[in-house]
Each structure stands twice: as C-alpha cells, then as structure tokens.
Write a structure and sequence with these properties.
DUF4158, single chain, mainly alpha, 47% helix, DUF4158 domain-containing protein
C-alpha cells in the first residue's frame, strides 16, 4: 500500500528528520528578508516563512495548524525569532498571493457555476 506522503494530496510526513528540516525548511537570509518586508510582527513573519517553505516543498498551501511543531520550531529558530512565537496569519490570502508572485505563478479563481476548462 502506498504511504499517504506519496499520494497526489501532499501532506507532511509523520517523522521529519533533521536532514529533511535543513534541506527543505531552512529559510535563506534572503527569504527571511523578503518575508520581513511583507509583515508587521513576528507572528506574521513566522507564518509567511512557513507558507513559503511549505509551498516550496509540497506545492500547496497547508493550513498553519497542519504544519508539524518540529517544522514550526525549526523555522522559528532559523529565522532568529523569539522562543514562544506562534505563527498567526489573519492575512492568509495575501501571504499565498505573495508566495505565488515570488514563484512567478498566477492564480485564477474558478467562478461559481462554471466547469473547469479542459
């Protein structure tokens, strides 16, 4: 049976190794500076970096409560944020839009009542 991590619906692995944390979730200095320019507090900064790194790894935007605590703690320390900083995103749509722009992607919402193009 295929593990849930290898399906078409990306999810975080149950166990994430230290190597995977450094390889996939360690933000560069430039990424932290980019996120800092778009946020106004540590909680939003942490959320923005988590959204960016999760998108880069999984190709989708998970809800913040789906991000494992090990990833949150690792990113918090890598971004030099105070211990106890909790990701908060009242502006989730703006954060996703900023990540899409950074990645050079566009996003078109489907209008209600219309079927997807084929």
């Amino acid at each position: 049976m295929t593990s849930i991590e290898r399906t078409a619906y990306p999810r975080f692995k149950r166990l994430i190794t230290a190597h995977e944390l450094h390889l996939f979730f360690e933000p560069s200095r430039e990424e932290v500076e980019w996120a800092t320019a778009r946020t106004d507090c540590d909680e939003h900064l942490l959320a923005q970096v988590l959204v960016l790194k999760s998108y880069q790894r999984m190709g989708c935007f998970p809800k913040l409560d789906e991000v494992p605590n090990t990833v949150v703690d690792f990113v918090r320390r890598a971004a030099d944020l105070p211990e106890g900083t909790v990701p908060r995103n009242r502006t989730a749509e703006r954060q996703r839009t900023a990540v899409r722009q950074r990645a050079g992607l566009s996003y078109e919402r489907r209008r209600p009542g219309r079927s997807p193009r084929r």
